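Weekly sync notes, structure subgroup
Attendees: PM, AL, DS (notes)

Item 1: joint prediction request from the bench team. They want all two components modeled as one assembly rather than separately. Inputs as received:
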Amino acid sequence: MEPLAVAVNGLVKRYGMTTAADGLSFDAAYGEVTALLGPNGAGKTTTVEICEGYRRADSGSVRVLGRDPRDAELKARIGVMPQSGGVPTNARAGEFLHLIASFYATPLDPAALLERLGLTAAARTSYRRLSGGQQQRLALAAAVVGRPELVFLDEPTAGLDPQARHATWELVGDLKAAGVAVILTTHHMDEAERLADEVVILDHGRVISSGPPSSLTGAERQLRFRARPGLGLDELLSALPPATMAKESPAGHYVIEGDLVPELLATVTAWCASNGVMTEDLRIERRTLEDVFLELTGRELRS
Amino acid sequence: MTDLTFTPSPGAAPRSRMVRAQTAYELRTLLRNGEQLLLTLIIPVALLILFSAAPLLDVGGGKRVDFLAPGVLALAVMSTAFTGQAIGTGFERRYGVLKRLGATPLPRSGLVTAKTLTVLTVEVLQALVICVVALALGWSPHGDPASAILLLLLGTAAFSGFGLLMAGTLRAEATLAAANLVYLLLLVLGGVVFPLTKFSGGVRSVLELLPISALANGLRRVLQHGAGFPVRDLVILAVWAVLGLALAARFFKWE
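Output from the run, pasted for the record:
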């Protein structure tokens, strides 16, 4: 077995004037979940579709299971869940999964897989009459029914209700435990934080950060609280050790970063008490992946 | 809960099994599609019965059904190989089905084979129904069945080529509209139920070059008049077939 399921080095892909992938590199290992995280238009789907063999890279090297991604041999070894569609609208859920299963030598039992994903009752329902969540789960089932070594899931939980999201997450966990390499794209931070062994943050076609979620969020902790907007933070800071930082963002939400020793917490609450400030939701926590993500990709809205 | 093991066990099924599964699937979905059945079976049979029973048309000498049955067989081929296949494949392309199947071990050639087998199977069913109805209406076919089958196969190839060309190049909605329009035009202008002899000489010689006219006239020459090998019609169909399939192979876009 090759050491890496996917190895991407210096991938470049342009569409006319737009550069969808701009010298992008990352690896994905067997038995691990690799999350490609990024705002819309960051190049996630382009990257995945190049790995799936749908498009050619303009330059750079892409190896999938040790081969060229366009190698027809790979089709039997890879599972693909597209972002949407891919199923004939008049196909029944069970019928479609049986069809896909019949393309593989030793597929999973389609009925058992439908049951696992809560689709048994919908097995005879045509695709167009399934709910959005059921359509997503059917696409997921079709991606794994051939018992692949590597699966690509393009936004697998977009539009799912909480139950369906958890069912999907559990299935991804089982794939990983079975040694399958999973590459998923998402813009849900909690999904990446929860599922991924390796997070690759993309923006404008580049990798702007990557690593295990814990290394991205770091060990640094923060003190957060809510209170009335417009507190005099300068005055508060003057009472705290020199390296401490404080900010209000958005209004009424305060974050204090620095050496979070017990005395600091006492000083902050004492300062609030003496200023007649009632705090809510006072807590000490690590930065979330969302904080890291917004720091790296900026807060302005993407079209 | 049933035990599921996700331990990788990759491998493609044998090609014949994949093609069989895809064909069975396409046939099943086609046969329960009401609009398709209307197009492929109900309209041809209704035309056959209506125009055989009522003296609405002057079809020249002989029984009306002897003139109509070959034309309706040609119409059946066009409805399945061209109209139905163009619309079905056009929407499969639009909904990303062709792209999705491209990520499975089923090769493109396997998918095309399955579509061809589906079209041929539906045509056999259509021909059976049409022949039974026509015989019940007093049809007395003549001629060499092999020539008739060759005409039907070449007609299928020609119509499939253009159906797939349309499905693979136009938007699905445009394919839907255009495929129906072409169907209607060729039904009226292609000598299916209205004899081409009604048109003036110049127009007629052009219309005779249409694939539907070549198929309908060829079948008539064999089945109505007992002619041997209708070379001219076979050549016309062969040219359309080569042209259509070559253009489809060159320009078909899978997504």
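Discussion: The mean pLDDT of chain B is 93.
Action: AL to compare against the crosslinking data before next sync.
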